[in-house]
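hey so u asked for the seq, here:
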Amino acid sequence: MLLFAMGFLLVILQPSTGQFPRACANTQSLLRKECCPPWDRDGSPCGELSSRGSCQNILLSQAPLGPQFPFSGVDDREDWPSVFYNRTCKCEGNFMGFNCGECKFGFSGPNCTERRLRTRRNIFQLTTSEKDKFLAYLNLAKNTPSQDYVIATGTYTQMNNGSNPMFRNINVYDLFVWMHYYASRDTLLGGSNVWRDIDFAHEAPGFLPWHRVFLLLWEREIQKITGDENFTIPYWDWRDAEDCVVCTDEYMGGRHPINPNLLSPASFFSSWQVICTRSEEYNSQQALCNATSEGPILRNPGNNDKSRTPRLPSSAEVEFCLSLTQYESGSMDKMANYSFRNTLEGFADPRTAISNISQSGLHNALHIYMNGSMSQVQGSANDPIFVLHHAFVDSIFERWLRRHRPMLEVYPAANAPIGHNRENYMVPFIPLYRNGEFFKPSRELGYDYEYLQEPALDSFQEFLIPYLEQARQIWPWLVGAAVIGGIVTAVLTGLIRACRKKRRGSSSEIQPLLIESEDYNNISYQSNF
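ran it, structure tokens below
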């Protein structure tokens, strides 16, 4: 009752961040292929009058793609978002958003100049009131319409190339469910034909950066609709867990007493309706998920196929994964060996790092273990355990970044599966984010994990962070220059010593430091090291 009342009181319409901006979901914007909405404070596109940004052509990556998707011009997500828009807002400085009306992650204040660091905490370390507030926030998001964003219910072709817009409203929580579906859905080829070997958020290098952005945006939306600027997503540390310890009515919903595939009626999650779970139906109809309710959340943890996923991941498996030095390797998909990304995602054995798609490890193991809505990729975000799980996966990614300190060049620039090259824009986010922009430590994006926290930096150190990062990226050249400088110095020192020794050998006495005035005309000035 307390949670219901809290949610009811908090239901207020606030801006949302996600997919198609409502201001651009119209015939004029689609035909002009331009999405540059005005910033409400000054009324100019992209807040240009306030120097926040300007409307500019989108610069698409020309780097070659991998062989996994052998088509061109058949999927709206190719070269995102150019099928829909080729001009969007480019924000300046620390401004961000589809109209440059927000701050980049990690910044706040009216001019986005104030650095801010938030901490994500273990859900079992929250107080009862903090935990209840988190659950209420989830329910609020499920019942609050997104004010600024809508979802597409048809392809660009079905929209008659923009002249017949097909969009609909959606609540804040389901907006993110739909985005996860849209990024991972199959390609519709016409008739009854589809192409399944495509995913803009999984099975390739972008898996970890994509979900990092997804969680940051989801976190920000909760902050907006609740007015709680300090809110952060909690995580569930599932290492060595013997069962689903968050699957209780106190947390994410217990098991139904009669039907083990449903949630306990004592949890308000039992009343939630899922969307975007019927991929075969959409494929047969050559249609997109239109966010129609499709039934309750399904979950039967532990009653999964044990031959595929015998148990939840162990600490030892996580540590082995962290020891891998290569972020990506080989084909850069689910067949990659010795790849940190592929091992963490769960397509490679967490004890050998050899690809084995008949088994599900680490990230994938948790999804399969839940044995329900979480176990189907496109609709997995319907279960609120999704955010707890992916927050912990992101923390493992963060541990790897801190341990190995990779340069940006470690993230593949070319030949990755479609949508996963370093400079590709992530599907389906508007505003636009490139994969490589989130291949960096979380503190630079404004958040940290409680169990990874390091001593707080003072303001001077915070000021130095970007310069230290640049220095780190050019350190091999700095080391080389230092070595060469050392050699040159040694040679010069040797020559000077030789000259001094020779001079001492030819002179019977050392010239005095002070000389008589009459000797000035005969002196020759020499400088000595």
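The longest strand covers residues 53-57. Residues 240 and 314 are 5 Å apart (CA to CA).
lmk if thats what u needed
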